[in-house]
Amino acid sequence: MLDNTRLRNPQLFDKIVTPEEAAALITDGMNVGVSGFTPSGYPKKTTIALAKAIKEGKRCRINIWSGASVGPEIEEELAAVGAIKGRMPYYAASNKSMKKGINEGKIEYVDQHLSHFGQQVDYGFFGDVDVAIIEATAITAEGNIILGPGVGNAPIFVKHAKKIIIEVNTSIPLNLEGMHDIYIPAIPPNRTEIPIYHAGDRIGKPYVECGIDRIDCIVESDILDHVRDLTAPDAASIKIAENLVEFLEYEQKMGRLPEKMLPLQSGVGSIANAVLLGLAKSRFENLEMYSEILQDSVFRLIKLGKIAKASGCAFTPSPSVWEMYKEDPDLYRKSIVLRPLDISNHPEVIRRLGVIAMNTPLEFDIYGQANSTHVMGCTMMNGIGGSGDYMRNGFLTIFSTPSTAKCGSISSVVPMVTHADHTEHDTMVFITEQGVADIRGLSPVKRAKAIINNCAHPDFRPQLLEYLRFAQQKNAHMPIDLAHCFDMQKKFYETGTML
Amino acid sequence: MLDNTRLRNPQLFDKIVTPEEAAALITDGMNVGVSGFTPSGYPKKTTIALAKAIKEGKRCRINIWSGASVGPEIEEELAAVGAIKGRMPYYAASNKSMKKGINEGKIEYVDQHLSHFGQQVDYGFFGDVDVAIIEATAITAEGNIILGPGVGNAPIFVKHAKKIIIEVNTSIPLNLEGMHDIYIPAIPPNRTEIPIYHAGDRIGKPYVECGIDRIDCIVESDILDHVRDLTAPDAASIKIAENLVEFLEYEQKMGRLPEKMLPLQSGVGSIANAVLLGLAKSRFENLEMYSEILQDSVFRLIKLGKIAKASGCAFTPSPSVWEMYKEDPDLYRKSIVLRPLDISNHPEVIRRLGVIAMNTPLEFDIYGQANSTHVMGCTMMNGIGGSGDYMRNGFLTIFSTPSTAKCGSISSVVPMVTHADHTEHDTMVFITEQGVADIRGLSPVKRAKAIINNCAHPDFRPQLLEYLRFAQQKNAHMPIDLAHCFDMQKKFYETGTML
């Protein structure tokens, strides 16, 4: 029940409406910006009501803009009724109707660097933000918005929105207040520096500035975010994590990393989780994260005292970790800073702090290009997300993945990626359970040998070496055979295995 | 003749040696860092002497590190005698022996983002800088180095070099003094902001800090930089420039660009030159450049009063423009700032200032990927240079090129690039003499239609549309046919034409 701890001005109570009334504000062709990032901090009630209205005959196809993929109340409910015309800037394969719509070409999806999208909305490149739907913990007496666990692009959407719907979610603990640090850079030519010098620095306000008059309506919500528990790391992930920790220790020993470890960024998913848990067992102390999304392992490492500061644009505790949070909210509140997406992923800050970036590709090739997004070059799996922001700008950048997929039938190392998300200029180190290929300063042929011999699975090394030998028949800086570079992927497509 | 206007401390005269004596400091296996950027401000005498010594029997293969490609006294002389083992971070096809060595795999070349290389040398990723050879205008009483017209990575090389050779070139006008702004960012975790807020801001010193004791020897030089006059713009370049100016005016009208034009970056070569000359005829006034290399057209626009401030890491006036400079050096000195390469190309500054970036690709594809470097995916033409730095971080980014090459036998638009230097996430606008494709916010199939219909040459549109139609038979987010995506390039390879 909404009370004055959640709505801190009596005028706000007059704005409470039903989800159906809120959904009625959304009409055909609109650009709709939603708060949240991954299944965290996104609105739920209004979009469920909109999907219901469409099922009952309302004609409405809209463009959904967000921080990243959000939860099924948007991705699934709206996609299933054909309500989504366009989608930016990220999508994840876990939402089946969205996946189907995008890959059948029915939903116009534009995959973007997450640090770019918010600023380009701010520049007006994509047109108006007709409606913003923002999930909130509470609204202040001045009408400013205290967000939930996911910030994403909410501040930019609120800045520009013609209409604002706020879902105040009573299931979010009120003690999240103070975790957010909301800062919107000025538009050039008036932009100045982003004054973050350490991962934990605060530079903005604990709320999104809005004002009571700009709020069109308020919807009460109590639906929990749909975060699932991560699976426990498997043998390959544990070995990858060991290889990674060993590599970082070696870099420190060689004087190429400072004694106090630089801030870490870690991607999403089970490999990333295993890597962080691997760091928990390392000799590194007082770690800092300057990352995008903070998953369960970050909370566990804060509790263990391994992580001192963690900056992200959202956190996604699974139900069990929410319980852990509730036992000692002050510990997490003083350790965690939640920022807008274009600040968490800002090239300026990532390069200044010297972030060590760790992400997982779908496949990478012998010359060091990485594919993070497209299966067989054409089917969108997951968007590029923030990986480009961190891998281009990090101090030291590491792509890690098991050397094979689908029970050993797919090699993660191929002669040429079918889609280049990270070019040969943007990658430094590849790690699989087989080993480490550090390609910094290596010319293409040396890179190829390092990647094949250190990272590829032994089952696939002969055909990769054979391709390289064949391509090298023509002398070239980067020996490529355009007639055979996709043979492994074509073989998989025809036979179901690259072997 | 070196006098006390060039060597401002008597001790410096004791360090004068012959080029042969200087070259003797360079031994097999060394990493040698040289000043300069394109044929501007690079050392000449020592490397000529080294090449001669090698011809006479000295055994010496070295790694050459620079800002970009430099002049023939290094690229040609040393490559021709097999003296170059490795080369970073840039190379240009104009130097034949270097091109041959790289593309026969005899010279280990590593192509890099120019904003990355200097900082990675600073981080120690590539090992020691054994020798730095720096071309200078003069040396101060304290032993600090006043550089010539090309800065490149000279400051980082001097910072780390175990031995320092300075070539003081008496052909460089002394009145270049004061143009340089030398600033080296601290290494993380101690790095702060790069405090540049306008293209013309000065944040460093007018010289490279060195000290008399660290200078091993001084060589007198009077060899001029090898800058050629640019050819006059042809009809296609003039039409491209018109399309570009019209596009920028439209963006301003739509409110997506501020009234005062944002700082411009322009790549190297005849298209870039034509574009700048096109801007000279536009209604834009008080232009600023935040660019890499400043070519003839910048000087002409400064003289016309069209450009108020120009920042770069080098300038390359042709002989006739040097004469223009000498008529009014104060005008150019107050308008031009010369910075280290990792500052001229710094993502932080490019994004903050909101640079409008304009570069020329070799080919680009229907989904918006661009190839700046490799012919047929394997032969290195020119390095990526700074194009990745500017195109990833610019406010608005434009790739422009004629729609065909080699008398119409090659289409600049292809189904898939053979080498992706700029991914689909990094490109916004393509311009040819045919028209403009603005792909911001467009999903892949819409992008393909815009690029084919607006940018491709009519001779090639049918086969590009046919490929798209064929690929679309399989529903997909990004319809690609791996068996046919390189057909146009393969046809050229086999028949000498894509038609």
UniProtKB/TrEMBL annotation, chains A, B:
GO biological process: acetate metabolic process; acetyl-CoA metabolic process
Protein family: Belongs to the acetyl-CoA hydrolase/transferase family.
A Pfam cross-reference name: AcetylCoA_hydro
UniProt-annotated catalytic positions: E292
Lineage top rank: taxon: Bacteria
Residues that coordinate or bind CoA: N382, G386, K406
Any one GO MF annotation of this record: acetate CoA-transferase activity
Domain Acetyl-CoA hydrolase/transferase C-terminal: 333-467
Residue ranges of domain Acetyl-CoA hydrolase/transferase N-terminal in the record: 11-208
Name of the protein this chain belongs to: Succinate CoA transferase
Gene3D superfamilies xrefs: 4-hydroxybutyrate coenzyme like domains, Acetyl-CoA hydrolase/transferase C-terminal domain, Glutaconate Coenzyme A-transferase
Alphabetic keyword roster: Transferase
Organism expressing this protein natively: Phascolarctobacterium faecium
